[in-house]
Write a structure and sequence with these properties.
- It is a single chain.
- Helix content is 31%, strand content 21%.
- By secondary structure, it is α/β, with parallel strands linked by helices.
- The strands form two sheets. Strands 2-3-1-4-9-5-8 form a seven-stranded mixed β-sheet, with helices on both faces. It has a two-stranded antiparallel sheet with strand order 6-7.
- Helix 3 crosses helix 5.
- The N and C termini lie far apart (38 Å).
- The mean pLDDT is 97.
- The structure holds pyroglutamic acid.
- The site of pyroglutamic acid (PCA) has 12 residues, from strand 4 and helix 4.
- Belongs to the peptidase C15 family.
- It is an enzyme of class 3 (hydrolase).
- GO terms for molecular function: pyroglutamyl-peptidase activity.
Length: 213
Protein backbone atom coordinates (compact mmCIF):
# COMPACT_ATOMS: atom_id res chain seq x y z
CA UNK A 1 0.00 0.00 0.00
CA UNK A 2 1.25 3.48 -0.88
CA UNK A 3 0.25 6.42 1.28
CA UNK A 4 0.83 9.98 0.13
CA UNK A 5 1.22 12.14 3.22
CA UNK A 6 1.28 15.91 3.00
CA UNK A 7 2.12 18.79 5.39
CA UNK A 8 2.10 22.56 4.86
CA UNK A 9 4.76 25.25 5.17
CA UNK A 10 4.32 28.00 7.81
CA UNK A 11 1.78 30.75 7.04
CA UNK A 12 0.20 33.82 8.67
CA UNK A 13 3.41 35.11 10.33
CA UNK A 14 4.12 31.78 12.06
CA UNK A 15 7.72 30.52 11.95
CA UNK A 16 6.74 26.89 12.06
CA UNK A 17 3.89 24.69 10.86
CA UNK A 18 3.45 21.59 13.03
CA UNK A 19 1.96 19.68 10.09
CA UNK A 20 5.17 19.54 8.08
CA UNK A 21 7.31 19.02 11.21
CA UNK A 22 5.18 15.99 12.03
CA UNK A 23 5.24 14.64 8.48
CA UNK A 24 9.05 14.82 8.46
CA UNK A 25 9.22 12.80 11.68
CA UNK A 26 6.95 9.94 10.63
CA UNK A 27 8.51 6.64 9.60
CA UNK A 28 8.71 5.88 5.90
CA UNK A 29 7.28 2.40 6.49
CA UNK A 30 4.27 1.82 8.71
CA UNK A 31 2.91 -1.73 8.99
CA UNK A 32 4.21 -2.61 5.55
CA UNK A 33 2.78 0.51 3.88
CA UNK A 34 5.15 2.90 2.12
CA UNK A 35 4.80 6.53 3.21
CA UNK A 36 5.58 9.20 0.60
CA UNK A 37 6.00 12.64 2.17
CA UNK A 38 5.33 15.90 0.38
CA UNK A 39 5.60 19.49 1.58
CA UNK A 40 2.79 21.60 0.18
CA UNK A 41 2.99 25.41 0.01
CA UNK A 42 0.14 27.25 1.73
CA UNK A 43 -0.97 28.62 -1.63
CA UNK A 44 -4.45 27.95 -3.01
CA UNK A 45 -3.90 26.88 -6.61
CA UNK A 46 -0.38 25.54 -6.30
CA UNK A 47 -1.35 23.19 -3.45
CA UNK A 48 -3.69 21.23 -5.73
CA UNK A 49 -1.26 21.29 -8.65
CA UNK A 50 1.56 19.82 -6.57
CA UNK A 51 -0.79 17.20 -5.19
CA UNK A 52 -1.86 16.14 -8.69
CA UNK A 53 1.76 15.93 -9.93
CA UNK A 54 2.54 13.61 -7.04
CA UNK A 55 -0.57 11.49 -7.56
CA UNK A 56 0.55 10.91 -11.17
CA UNK A 57 4.08 10.07 -10.07
CA UNK A 58 3.39 7.96 -6.97
CA UNK A 59 -0.03 6.43 -7.76
CA UNK A 60 -1.04 6.30 -4.09
CA UNK A 61 -3.78 4.14 -2.59
CA UNK A 62 -4.36 6.71 0.15
CA UNK A 63 -3.87 10.48 0.41
CA UNK A 64 -3.70 11.84 3.94
CA UNK A 65 -3.22 15.59 4.24
CA UNK A 66 -2.26 17.24 7.52
CA UNK A 67 -2.66 20.92 8.39
CA UNK A 68 -2.44 23.28 11.34
CA UNK A 69 -5.68 24.47 12.91
CA UNK A 70 -4.66 27.28 15.28
CA UNK A 71 -7.13 27.58 18.15
CA UNK A 72 -8.38 24.00 18.09
CA UNK A 73 -7.60 21.85 21.11
CA UNK A 74 -7.95 18.35 19.64
CA UNK A 75 -6.80 16.35 16.66
CA UNK A 76 -9.62 17.05 14.24
CA UNK A 77 -10.49 14.51 11.61
CA UNK A 78 -12.28 16.36 8.84
CA UNK A 79 -15.55 15.01 7.48
CA UNK A 80 -16.12 17.25 4.47
CA UNK A 81 -14.51 19.66 2.00
CA UNK A 82 -16.57 22.32 0.20
CA UNK A 83 -16.17 23.77 -3.28
CA UNK A 84 -15.27 27.30 -2.26
CA UNK A 85 -12.21 29.43 -1.55
CA UNK A 86 -12.97 32.33 0.80
CA UNK A 87 -9.82 33.74 2.38
CA UNK A 88 -9.70 35.94 5.47
CA UNK A 89 -5.90 36.26 5.18
CA UNK A 90 -3.62 36.10 2.16
CA UNK A 91 -2.02 32.78 1.24
CA UNK A 92 1.79 32.53 0.93
CA UNK A 93 1.54 33.89 -2.62
CA UNK A 94 -0.38 37.00 -1.50
CA UNK A 95 -3.67 35.72 -2.96
CA UNK A 96 -6.97 36.26 -1.17
CA UNK A 97 -9.76 34.72 -3.22
CA UNK A 98 -13.33 35.49 -2.15
CA UNK A 99 -16.14 33.07 -2.91
CA UNK A 100 -14.35 31.39 -5.81
CA UNK A 101 -15.25 27.86 -6.78
CA UNK A 102 -12.33 25.44 -6.57
CA UNK A 103 -13.54 23.29 -9.48
CA UNK A 104 -16.28 24.40 -11.89
CA UNK A 105 -16.92 20.75 -12.80
CA UNK A 106 -16.68 19.47 -9.21
CA UNK A 107 -19.40 18.59 -6.69
CA UNK A 108 -20.46 21.24 -4.16
CA UNK A 109 -18.72 19.12 -1.52
CA UNK A 110 -16.97 15.81 -1.02
CA UNK A 111 -17.00 13.63 2.07
CA UNK A 112 -13.77 12.05 3.27
CA UNK A 113 -13.79 8.36 2.41
CA UNK A 114 -11.51 7.45 5.30
CA UNK A 115 -12.93 5.73 8.42
CA UNK A 116 -13.12 9.05 10.28
CA UNK A 117 -15.08 7.82 13.32
CA UNK A 118 -12.83 4.82 13.78
CA UNK A 119 -9.76 7.08 13.56
CA UNK A 120 -11.14 9.39 16.28
CA UNK A 121 -11.95 6.43 18.54
CA UNK A 122 -8.54 4.80 18.12
CA UNK A 123 -6.74 8.08 18.90
CA UNK A 124 -8.90 8.65 21.99
CA UNK A 125 -8.12 5.12 23.21
CA UNK A 126 -4.51 6.32 23.50
CA UNK A 127 -5.69 9.23 25.68
CA UNK A 128 -5.14 11.91 23.05
CA UNK A 129 -8.01 14.38 22.46
CA UNK A 130 -9.58 13.82 19.04
CA UNK A 131 -12.85 14.77 17.38
CA UNK A 132 -14.73 14.83 14.11
CA UNK A 133 -14.68 18.26 12.51
CA UNK A 134 -17.55 19.18 10.26
CA UNK A 135 -15.72 22.04 8.56
CA UNK A 136 -12.15 22.32 7.32
CA UNK A 137 -12.69 26.08 6.90
CA UNK A 138 -12.52 27.93 3.58
CA UNK A 139 -8.76 28.53 3.40
CA UNK A 140 -5.98 26.41 1.84
CA UNK A 141 -6.64 23.28 3.96
CA UNK A 142 -10.22 22.99 2.76
CA UNK A 143 -8.92 23.68 -0.76
CA UNK A 144 -6.37 20.87 -0.58
CA UNK A 145 -8.83 18.42 0.95
CA UNK A 146 -11.33 19.27 -1.81
CA UNK A 147 -8.64 18.73 -4.46
CA UNK A 148 -7.59 15.43 -2.86
CA UNK A 149 -11.14 14.09 -3.04
CA UNK A 150 -11.80 15.51 -6.53
CA UNK A 151 -8.55 13.90 -7.75
CA UNK A 152 -9.33 10.67 -5.87
CA UNK A 153 -12.42 10.37 -8.09
CA UNK A 154 -10.50 11.35 -11.21
CA UNK A 155 -7.67 8.85 -10.70
CA UNK A 156 -9.95 6.16 -9.18
CA UNK A 157 -9.59 3.82 -6.21
CA UNK A 158 -7.93 6.37 -3.95
CA UNK A 159 -9.05 6.94 -0.37
CA UNK A 160 -8.43 10.47 0.84
CA UNK A 161 -8.93 12.69 3.84
CA UNK A 162 -7.61 15.49 5.99
CA UNK A 163 -6.60 15.85 9.63
CA UNK A 164 -6.05 19.18 11.38
CA UNK A 165 -3.67 19.37 14.34
CA UNK A 166 -3.42 22.11 17.03
CA UNK A 167 -0.65 24.66 17.44
CA UNK A 168 2.58 23.54 19.11
CA UNK A 169 3.18 24.87 22.65
CA UNK A 170 5.99 27.11 21.33
CA UNK A 171 3.51 28.84 19.00
CA UNK A 172 1.19 29.93 21.81
CA UNK A 173 3.73 31.48 24.18
CA UNK A 174 2.26 34.90 23.43
CA UNK A 175 -1.30 33.85 22.60
CA UNK A 176 -3.34 33.89 25.78
CA UNK A 177 -5.94 31.17 26.29
CA UNK A 178 -4.99 29.34 23.11
CA UNK A 179 -4.76 25.55 23.17
CA UNK A 180 -1.78 23.58 21.91
CA UNK A 181 -0.55 20.00 21.63
CA UNK A 182 3.06 18.87 21.69
CA UNK A 183 4.53 17.31 18.58
CA UNK A 184 4.96 13.92 20.28
CA UNK A 185 1.22 13.56 20.87
CA UNK A 186 0.25 14.83 17.42
CA UNK A 187 2.78 12.41 15.95
CA UNK A 188 1.37 9.49 17.96
CA UNK A 189 -2.13 10.44 16.84
CA UNK A 190 -1.25 10.54 13.15
CA UNK A 191 0.58 7.22 13.48
CA UNK A 192 -2.60 5.73 14.94
CA UNK A 193 -4.67 7.29 12.14
CA UNK A 194 -2.40 5.76 9.50
CA UNK A 195 -2.51 2.31 11.11
CA UNK A 196 -6.29 2.55 11.34
CA UNK A 197 -6.51 3.42 7.64
CA UNK A 198 -4.19 0.53 6.69
CA UNK A 199 -6.08 -2.04 8.73
CA UNK A 200 -9.58 -0.87 7.95
CA UNK A 201 -11.92 -2.31 5.41
CA UNK A 202 -15.65 -2.10 5.31
CA UNK A 203 -17.97 0.24 7.14
CA UNK A 204 -16.98 3.06 9.47
CA UNK A 205 -18.24 2.96 13.09
CA UNK A 206 -21.85 4.02 13.65
CA UNK A 207 -21.24 6.45 16.50
CA UNK A 208 -22.05 10.12 16.68
CA UNK A 209 -19.51 12.71 15.65
CA UNK A 210 -22.17 15.36 15.31
CA UNK A 211 -22.52 18.78 16.89
CA UNK A 212 -25.60 20.86 17.70
CA UNK A 213 -24.10 23.97 16.15
N1 LIG B 1 -3.55 25.33 7.87
C1 LIG B 1 -4.29 26.23 7.02
C2 LIG B 1 -3.59 26.16 5.68
C3 LIG B 1 -2.25 25.54 5.95
C4 LIG B 1 -2.36 24.97 7.30
O1 LIG B 1 -1.52 24.25 7.86
C5 LIG B 1 -5.79 25.93 6.98
O2 LIG B 1 -6.32 25.39 7.95
O3 LIG B 1 -6.44 26.25 5.98
Amino acid sequence: MKILLTGFDPFDKEKINPSIELVKKLNEKIEGAQIFKIEIPTVFKKSGEILEENIKKIKPDVILCIGQAGGRSAISVERIAINIDDARIADNDGKKPIDEKIRIDGENAYFSNLPIKKIVEEIKKEKIPAEISNSAGTFVCNHLMYEALYLAEKYKNIRAGFIHIPYLPEQVLNKANTPSMDLENSLRAINIAIKTIINHNGEDLKISGGKIS
